[in-house]
What we know:
Belongs to the class-II aminoacyl-tRNA synthetase family. It is built from 13 helices and 19 strands. It has helices at about 55-65, 110-115, 120, 125-145, 185-195, 230-255, 255-260, 265-270, 280-290, 305-310, 365-375, 385-390, 405-410, and strands spanning about 1-5, 15-30, 30-40, 45-50, 70-80, 85-95, 150, 160, 170-175, 175-180, 200-205, 220-230, 280, 315-320, 335, 335-340, 345-350, 355-360, 395-400. Helix 4 (about 125-145) packs across helix 6 and helix 4 crosses helix 13. The radius of gyration is 26 Å and the shape is elongated. The model has no long low-confidence stretch (mean pLDDT about 95). It binds adenosine-5'-triphosphate and magnesium ion (3 copies). One magnesium ion binds near residues 345, 354 and 357.
Amino acid sequence: xxxxxxxxxxxxxxxxxxxxxxxxxxxxxxxxxxxxxxxxxxxxxxxxxxxxxxxxxxxxxxxxxxxxxxxxxxxxxxxxxxxxxxxxxxxxxxxxxxxxxxxxxxxxxxxxxxxxxxxxxxxxxxxxxxxxxxxxxxxxxxxxxxxxxxxxxxxxxxxxxxxxxxxxxxxxxxxxxxxxxxxxxxxxxxxxxxxxxxxxxxxxxxxxxxxxxxxxxxxxxxxxxxxxxxxxxxxxxxxxxxxxxxxxxxxxxxxxxxxxxxxxxxxxxxxxxxxxxxxxxxxxxxxxxxxxxxxxxxxxxxxxxxxxxxxxxxxxxxxxxxxxxxxxxxxxxxxxxxxxxxxxxxxxxxxxxxxxxxxxxxxxxxxxxxxxxxxxxxxxxxxxxxxxxxxxxxxxxxxxxxxxxxxxxxxxxxxxxxxxxxxxxxxxxxx
Length: 431
Ligand code: ATP
Ligand code: MG
Ligand code: MG
Ligand code: MG
């Protein structure tokens, strides 16, 4: 008899099969028991009819507890009434591992309790759906960049110097040296682009974010493409094409997950329309000031400001050309004015905030050196990085997309902690 996974049920209608799974729920009467089964691939229903099985099997079915693991043997049948479309008419049940007093029921417990039990919370259908979307975003990312001719490159995680804000760095010891966990692979990706042309990385990123928000993890994953011979406008075109591709693939391949999450698919569909609107930082400040926001030119936007701007559009929106003073040293100034840089943030709709930050990089040796000095950075630490401008410097651009931000948005989840299997948050490193 064939051992199958629930997801394959449609290919085995009318056949006797064996499935290993867990009992996620159960209902029974005197004559029939309905078992909600999950096996990690999907969910569906097992039906045990008293008159069709041995008495011991029916009694066993009635006694099964939540999250007990079982082998069930039965015949797959189409069932248009069930939301899964199929069910198994159970003939045999074998308990593999009993589960006594399963501690959590997601609908009934508060967040702290669920977070303490994250290892079990992951078994819920909502978390399952989010993890499927996470998988699809990763899969489609590799596919997209592969189709576009990018090479995947892995920058180091232990680094000797920091790309950006030093207050968020995780310090560690590297034998007799000081080292930091990577906050961004960008500088290395620039080197990779000079060697390989178009590259992207996908890796973990560590930031000691000191404030609690719904949008920040301490450990998150970032996709960082870097492109030689591309200016900021060409980079924006790649960015919107990439994000629209992610949305389309989630729509195409995560239908069931989106249903479980009750995500509005018509809304998601709008996010596949290109191009995405673009607004300059200057225009954004004017817009905010005209709507009673207390903001001066030169300040960075926080979540309320980003949400207000995003709400003017029904697609993701780019905010272009931020003030040089609030951006990192490596961004190239605008050719017509020195107070802003050639950069953009992509802001997700519906209040999900910044999902991409990107820029054209300073490619001039002298200008870069001056910027490093202005930022109080030690030129010695960046000697290798300056080499990229000494030996055949070219215009180049790149960006970083936050994986969990994107997943939070696509799945319509409240808080970023659900977009990663084991979130690292301020004051939480367990489980
Ligand atoms: P924010 O303004 O939201 O703090 P940032 O400007 O500091 O983000 P970047 O350095 O531009 O972030 O990083 C690129 C992308 O990484 C961001 O657009 C966002 O999607 C994601 N990101 C940044 N910080 C975090 C974090 N702490 N947790 C999860 N994702 C993050
Ligand atoms: Mg930040
Ligand atoms: Mg930002
Ligand atoms: Mg940013």
